[in-house]
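Interim report, section 4.2 (structural modelling).
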Amino acid sequence: DAKTTQPPSMDCAEGRAANLPCNHSTISGNEYVYWYRQIHSQGPQYIIHGLKNNETNEMASLIITEDRKSSTLILPHATLRDTAVYYCIARDLNQAGTALIFGKGTTLSVSS
Amino acid sequence: EAGVTQSPTHLIKTRGQQVTLRCSPISGHTSVYWYQQALGLGLQFLLWYDEGEERNRGNFPPRFSGRQFPNYSSELNVNALELEDSALYLCASSLEGTPNEKLFFGSGTQLSVL
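Predicted structure of the assembly:
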């Protein structure tokens, strides 16, 4: 799976949009971009994933650049409960037999 | 629908002892994954079981082992506990274990080794 790079930490005011960047400049055509988050002392939670097109669900939006070298996770109206570590992972569909590997992620702090 | 359940939630052991952690996946899920998260560190992949067989193993010594039962539940065993084994152990399940599958995590077992 391609290496991803994320800022170690970000701050966001409650009610504002949180835009979390992820760089994956070596991503291949078979690799999806996945986002998970981990709230303190809990197991990670799946948020969203995408290949080429932008994706949106009830939790967030995922914007992938046209060259697929980077992406942004958008939490449209951040709340205090969105304070967590956010992990961006590039996942190769051809890597059968390999497990999901988490990096260090971005610690998002939402404050009132 | 019940999520991934892990037991116990907390455990205290002394160095040299053995421990068994348990995980029940979401109903219908056949793949179970184990991860270790030591304090201040990221999630480290331990083991992956699918359909009762070990599919992949992370960079951990052999004293970390496990198995998956016919009902797809799983156990993680750690022998000869060391102080650095103190960590949150997380179990996750997925539907088929394919690379595109979403993982669903339990709340973990917090193991303290004294």
